[in-house]
Amino acid sequence: MDWIEEVLSKVKSHIRNSSLCRGLLYTMSLGLIVAIVVNYMLQSVCKGWIDVILERYELVGALESKEASDIFEVAVINTINSYGLVILIVITEFFGVLYYLKHWIMPGITAAKEAVEYLELGDYSHEQNYLEENEVGKVCGKIENLRRQLIEMKYREWDAQKELSSINAAFAHDMRTPLTVMKGYTEFLLNYVPQGKVSQELLLDKLGTIYQHEERLLEFSKTMTEIRTIEMREIKCKWVSLSELVNELQITVEEMERQSGLDIFMDIQEEVADRADQTIISMDKSLVFETFENLLSNGIRYAQGSIEIKLMLEKEWLTIFVKDDGDGFSAKALKDAKKLYYSEDKGMGHHFGMGLYISEKLCEKHGGNLTIVNGIDQGAIVAARFRVNSKIN
User: Which CATH architecture does the domain made up of 238-392 adopt?
Assistant: First the structure.
């Protein structure tokens, strides 16, 4: 009888994965079939039962006679024959619908209710296991997707809090030096200027140093504002011609080349160049250009004589490579160069190690990432990737 179990298993699976209306229709149809089969069997039993009763009363073959119709047992059996199918249909449909609700709808509703209650309590550890293909299963699937999204949001919040703590720590650390210097020089001047022990030349020198550190603190405060602006920035994608993008990048390259005095070469992927006039890209152009200018400015700071740029477009990825011919990243820089306020310059300049940090955040805003490596021969290579939509116009 294994084949019967196999057929029943397939029927159950088909009903379970059907829509609610279709599954209920299948269940009621099965109930109707069962009622008809049982009614057929019942009529056969009743016919045999009537024959036995008529034989007892010596009325064999006289079922339609008045004597036979006056027999109570025969009247009951005739009633069953007349209304048995209707009664059986009502019974099978009732229990069929009850079974359908209990085994194929209520488990999903219960699972969805429990999942929502856990989410309301902030407990995201309970995975949704009721994932049938009917409407209730789809609702449970949506709840499971929501649970995973909430988990991802929590991880992002934790990462953001961790990053904010790192930013505040770096900011406090870098502020400590100028504040210490300013405090020391101010105390020195307050102690010795009234006594006339400080020459005008020394006084101007100390005031100049204090002024430099004040400027540095102001620049630090501006960086904090800029970081906050990046966090709140919304991506605004528009369709842009690929040829227009290439031309504007080339204009930027020529201007930076003129200002820096370096040789800057821009190379376009051959396939990209061939279809540039027909291809349009959905992207936030201002964000891409801001990232590109950051990377190019960073490359100019470390290049010895030349910079190479390459533009690639592959499926949903727009990638811009910037390579300089400098000394490349140190082992520490390869690990920490994308962190905020990281810089190997220890002087009093206005470079705060924000270029790669900001570039990476902008790439992530656009669904991409930033990668840094050293070239095979020399120099540093920075690759900015942006997730875009492209199509042939």
Answer: 2-Layer Sandwich (3.30)
